[in-house]
Every structure is written in structure tokens, then in C-alpha cells.
Design brief:
The chain contains 6 helices and 5 strands, in the order E-H-E-H-H-E-H-E-H-E-H. By secondary structure, the protein is an alpha/beta fold. It has one domain: Flavodoxin domain (Rossmann fold, 3-Layer(aba) Sandwich). It has a 5-stranded parallel beta sheet, sandwiched between helices. Helix 4 (92-100) links the parallel strand 3 (78-84) and strand 4. It is globular and about 55 Å long. It starts with a strand and ends in a 14-residue tail after the last helix.
């Protein structure tokens, strides 16, 4: 099973990336099926802003900058989308990612939303991404989500004796959410093989 993690922070050394590493560890320790994890960190690998050249059939900058990631997305079974909260919104780099992902790469694939906050925020990016980012990407968000608050105080050790009660709860919640993601991945893989979900006639949402 292949899971693609998108780190939405603009920062090259971000708490969101640290959370991605924790989630990757949780995925790879699962015993139900081998897990392959690919991480796109938009702070370390920024993507250019969407422009109409992306649609061109002629060779362009997008062949080198987006096509390799697009191919990896096409072959993944599920996604984890990690968003910090920038002034009450999801980062521009993350919203740009969804503008680029309109070629069926993530269509009808389950995605777990994860918000990261140094304080007690994190709800706004979740609401924003649920409201609009699915429209042309056709990604399917799980009803489950994770909000990692006061992230600076968490995930500093793999030794459970150092975990607070809050972190112990959160790690169990992470495994619960990832378990849901794995089951949705299996169920939706059958749906994606159906010709009923072709994008030839209606490639974009209303």
C-alpha cells in the first residue's frame, strides 16, 4: 500500500514536516500490510504557482517540476495532507498543490487531513480544505481528522515513558485514523477501477 504525505508548510524546517515523519513511522510499523510512504515537503521542494502552461501539450517547465510528482500521486493509494495554520488559513503552497492536482492524480482516493498548530488553533485550515480543495481534485477526505495542538511540546521522544497523557492519547488517535485510512484505501481501490468514474465528460466539479 502506498501513502503520499503532503507537507503544506512554506518553511524548510517545519513542525509539519516533523509530524509527517511521526506519521510515516506509525504507517511503517503497521503489520496488516507493507506500507510505502512518499513525502512531498513543500517547504523543501516548492512548486511553481499554477499557470496555463500546465495544460499545454508542448514541452514546458512542468515536465520537470510537476510531472514526476504527478506520476507518484497517480500510483498512490491514499494521501495524508498536513497543514499548518497561517493567519487562520491553509498555506498558499498547499492550495497551489490542489490547483495542480486536477488531472485525476488523487481522484477518488482517501485522504486524512492533519492540522498543526503551535498554540490551540488548527481548526480553520481543516474547514477551508474540506470546503474547496476537493472540487476539481476529486479527493475524498475521511470523516476522521487530526489536529495537533501545541506541537512544539509533542513527539520529542520515542520512549513512551516521556509521553504526557495528552501525547499518549494523541498517538492512539493517530493509529485509529491511520487504520481508517488503510481500510478506505482498500475499499476505494475497487471503485476507481470502475468505468463509471471516468472524467472524460465531466472532469471538474460543479
Amino acid at each position: 500500500m502506498k501513502t503520499f504525505i503532503v507537507v503544506g508548510s512554506h518553511r524548510p524546517q517545519s513542525e509539519s514536516a516533523r509530524v509527517a515523519a511521526v506519521l510515516s513511522k506509525h504507517l511503517q510499523k503497521r503489520t496488516d500490510a507493507p506500507h510505502e510512504v512518499e513525502i512531498l515537503d513543500l517547504g523543501k521542494t516548492p512548486l511553481p504557482l499554477w499557470d496555463e502552461e500546465l495544460w499545454s501539450e508542448e514541452p514546458s517547465k512542468w515536465d520537470a517540476l510537476w510531472k514526476p510528482w504527478s506520476e507518484k500521486l497517480k500510483h498512490c493509494d491514499s494521501l495524508i495532507v498536513i497543514s499548518p495554520e497561517y493567519a487562520g488559513t491553509a498555506p498558499a503552497a498547499l492550495k497551489n498543490f490542489f490547483l495542480l492536482s486536477t488531472g485525476g492524480q488523487i481522484a477518488h482516493k482517501p485522504a486524512l487531513l492533519v492540522a498543526v498548530s503551535s498554540g490551540v488553533g488548527g481548526a480553520y485550515p481543516i474547514a477551508e480544505l474540506r470546503m474547496s480543495s476537493y472540487k476539481n481534485s476529486h479527493v475524498l477526505y475521511l470523516p476522521e481528522q487530526l489536529i495537533i495542538r501545541k506541537v512544539n511540546e509533542l513527539f520529542v521522544s520515542d520512549d513512551s515513558s516521556f509521553w504526557s497523557e495528552e501525547e499518549s492519547y494523541l498517538r492512539k488517535r493517530i493509529d485509529f485514523a491511520l487504520n481508517q485510512l488503510a481500510h478506505y484505501s482498500l475499499a476505494l481501490s475497487q471503485m476507481r477501477r470502475s468505468s463509471e468514474f471516468s472524467f472524460i465528460e465531466f472532469p471538474y466539479g460543479m
